Amino acid sequence: MREFSIPALAEIPATANLADAVFRRAAERPQSVVVRRPDPAGGWQDVTAAEFAGEVTAVARGLVAAGIEAGDRVAVMSHTRYEWTLIDYAIWVTGAVSVPVYETSSAEQAEWILTNSGARACFVETAEHEQIIESFRDQAPALKYVWRIEAGGSEASPLTRGGGRGGDRGGGGDGGGGGASVSDEVISGRATASDVATVIYTSGTTGRPKGCELTHGNLLADVRNAFLGPLTIIAGEQGASTLLFLPLAHVFARIIEVGCIESGIVLGHCPDAGELLPALASFRPTFILAVPRVFEKVYNGAEQRAVSERKGAIFGRAAQVAIAYSQAMDTPGGPAFGLRAQHALFDRLVYAKLRAALGGRAHYAASGGAALTQRLCHFFRGVGVTVLEGYGLTETTGAATVNRPDRNKIGTVGQPMPGVAVKIAEDGEILISGANVFRGYWQNEAPKKTDTDEETVMADGWFRTGDIGELDDEGFLRITGRKKEMIITAGGKNVAPAVLEDRLRSHALISQTMVVGDGRPFVAALITLDPDALGPWKQRHGKPSGTTIATLREDPDLIADVQKAVDDANKAVSRAESIRKFRILEDDFTQEAGQLTVKLGIRRSVLMKDFAADVEALYS
Length: 620
Hints:
Helices cover 36% and strands 20% of the residues. It is α/β, with parallel strands linked by helices. A hairpin with a 6-residue loop joins strand 25 and strand 26. Helix 16 crosses helix 19.
């Protein structure tokens, strides 16, 4: 099949904007819970629809009093937290444009985003973030205000009047001192569906990030069609809630934020990934969203704990049964009696504990940003938490395709969202059209792939994703590679590295990997080790705890275990595409070194330069 589409279930009125939902919910059900925010005692404090609308309005008044006008860009540099969502909606009420900055951004990265977007104001979370912005403030002439979310900011913040709930609000004032005198009429009706709501800078694997202009209509079309269609079951569940821990600077988290406010799902925020498991246990979400690496960590962590408690064999058998059970669910007869009996046994021994670690109420999880291996998809479904994979880019407002609870085909990223069409070009590139496709790149007349690329990413109304894929006869999309990442060996064989890399990263010992072989006689791989898994591995194999990777990289036991992971990955490809050699690196890939994107995707050009000697060693 070359093209597939599903009709839209929601049409967005020209007058609609994202802030409408805040006041609609306050008017219809003022005492319903919109958000739960952490309280000092370690629990969760309810924020009702009426309270949230009041706080959003107060912050919006402070912004207007500070001179923020419709169309102005306001940046936010913060971990995922309640105030992020509060500020986001206050910005939209004023008709301004929110510009997210990752909390991990360097001064150079933040400077590019703030100067390129022409931001007039910036909310920062901490004193450290404030120092980063101040370090280049002279180079950002449009930047008038820097407001701190936490207490002690040097400039008066709109949050001081926007909160009204205590906590760690910024220093005195109200963003100009006149917020209280700004009337509701002044801040109402400032944006429409066609106006830009946010400029999200793509992390990019090459070159400077580009700002994607997403309108109110883009975001509303995406979330309303999602929650009226594929995710109806999730949104309609009694007491539906989710705990957001992905960065709100990423489009995936933003559409969940908007989707929750639109659909009535209770939203929570977890700013510290290190505290995720305790937060999940206390918040008890009904569904979870994460990138594949999170699911890999959950699985690998459970496996490592079982091994350390001398229950590795039990966990291994439980995992096999969970996978077999899930696979049998896709057969006409379903799981056989014997498999059902084993599944029931391991549900009491293993699966229930895994579900409890995720809060005990989550039956579904959404995964995006990269591919999750079919093995792990089947494992989690067998455990009782169905992972629904989807696909999209910042330019498509996040989700363009998604699996749904009642139509989930593991190994694919689902069917197009309602109102979205997917087409496969002659060269295999995935093309997307629909109301979710962005308006263009900030300050670019025509959206281009890079500053020097003459080929625009839009062609006859279709967005060119740069990804390679195929549609099956039911319209389910399968991603097979990245157009510009295809490796062509010296023998002329085309190899999609992502297939091998995704399989390798799912192994407990492996942290990151890069497959190489362009213009070379065979395919090879650079591999880094997961430090959390390496400690228990050394203990099991009788290696001194202080042994370094530099010493271990030639160890026969370690090489043998990594070879098993390579052999497993090679099962997914032909012999000509298989990894023939690998090299274990002493250091992991990091964001700080510019080797990983914020989504933990690898930057091949940087890695090829940083590890050129290691690549050459593979072929010497």
